[in-house]
Amino acid sequence: MKKIILIGRTGSGKTTLVQALNNYSIEYKKTQAVEFYNNIIDTPGEYIESRRFYNALIALSFDCDIIALVQDCSDDGCIFPPEFAAMFNKIVIGIVTKIDCKKGNINYAKECLYNAGVSKIFKVSSLKGSGLDSIKMFLF
């Protein structure tokens, strides 16, 4: 299985996605520091929310095969700068989370990720389990 790092705003669903991919029980937990789960690195939202932590994201990416930018479709703002993915010398994918949310705008989330420079986008609902198999197959 390829190793992946999840990068996204606080509350975007990164930790819930980790829990769903690993078949753990889903429970809210604010990620305070970088956490390692099997082949997934879960980063705190503050690492993308403050440019002074970009160097930490770059350093962590050296230990991964795939970079995943996570965008919550119910978030009406895009945290990723244009062509953000270009700073990584790896495959960069996008993951749109919370697709089951009634107020979500999946097209806006996809546009945000494409502008950031991702090569492929996955749409998931960690709570309902939809889209998880696609990510798992991609990682194998």
Automatic annotation (TrEMBL):
It comes from the Bacteria. It holds the Pfam family PduV-EutP. InterPro entries: EutP_PduV (IPR012381), P-loop_NTPase (IPR027417). GO terms for biological process: biogenic amine metabolic process. One of its GO terms (molecular function) is ATP binding. Keywords: Nucleotide-binding. Belongs to the EutP/PduV family. NCBIfam families: EutP (TIGR02528). This is Ethanolamine utilization protein EutP. It comes from Maledivibacter halophilus.
